């Protein structure tokens, strides 16, 4: 299977909340649209320092992470980010790999948005059709 890239929009979730409460205007919500590498082997969302700064995300802490090449790196953890793909969205904290050239869209946000990789077409698709389904068990 080759690489699967998808266009996603990342939004500062604090800004989104402040907009909903009327503290800022919709056009003031910091957001960026990027081509993300869909990586089912990655756990979560990974961004670089440039994207973190553009979104105005504060650092909440740091955590040791094991990378695909089996090395360990201390990564910053951000405030929540909203991830939007077509008619689906989720919110979570991101790991920051400062020198990363790719945004990685990992298993946790994929699961939250009820998405899977279609290995035949090599595209992102709904696991249960066009509408997201949450499994609560």
Overall description:
With 137 residues, the protein is an alpha+beta fold. The protein is 15% helix and 45% strand. It has one domain (5-126): Acid Proteases (Cathepsin D, subunit A, domain 1, Beta Barrel). The chain contains three helices and nine strands. The longest helix has 8 residues, at 13-20. The chain is globular and about 45 Å long. It starts with a strand and ends in an 11-residue tail after the last strand. The model has no long low-confidence stretch (mean pLDDT 91).
How many DSSP E strands? 9
**How big a fraction of the residues is strand?**
35-45%
Name of the CATH class? Mainly Beta
Derived structural class: alpha+beta
Termini separation comes to 31 Å
Number of domains: 1
Our count of helices gives 3
The third-level CATH topology is: Cathepsin D, subunit A, domain 1
Helical amount:
10-25%
Which architecture would the CATH scheme give at its second level?
Answer: Beta Barrel
Task: Give the C-alpha Rg.
Answer: 15 Å
Q: Describe the main β-sheet briefly.
A: 6 strands, mixed, barrel
Instruction: Name the shape in a single word.
Output: globular
CATH homologous superfamily descriptor: Acid Proteases
Mean pLDDT, to the nearest integer, reads: 91
The succession of helices and strands, N to C, reads: EHEEHEEEEHEE
Q: What low-confidence regions span 5 or more consecutive residues with pLDDT below 50?
A: none
- Walk across the major sheet and give the strand order: 1-2-7-3-6-5
Topology:
Blueprint: E1 5-12, H1 13-20, E2 31-38, E3 45-47, H2 49-55, E4 59-66, E5 72-85, E6 88-96, E7 103-105, H3 107-112, E8 115-118, E9 123-126
Parallel strand pairs: 2-7, 3-6
Antiparallel strand pairs: 1-2, 1-5, 3-7, 4-5, 5-6, 8-9
């Amino acid at each position: 299977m080759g690489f699967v890239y998808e266009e996603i929009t990342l939004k500062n979730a604090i800004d989104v909340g402040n907009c909903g409460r009327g503290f800022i205007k919709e056009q003031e919500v910091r957001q960026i649209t990027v081509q993300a590498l869909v990586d089912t082997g990655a756990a979560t969302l990974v961004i670089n320092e440039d994207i973190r700064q553009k979104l105005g995300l504060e650092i909440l802490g740091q955590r040791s992470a094991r990378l695909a090449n089996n090395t360990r790196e201390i990564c910053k953890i951000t405030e929540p980010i909203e991830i939007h793909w077509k008619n689906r969205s989720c919110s979570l904290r991101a790991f920051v790999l400062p020198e990363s050239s790719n945004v990685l869209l990992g298993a946790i946000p994929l699961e939250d948005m009820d998405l899977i990789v279609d290995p035949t077409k090599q595209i992102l698709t709904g696991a249960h059709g066009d509408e997201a389904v949450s499994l609560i068990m």
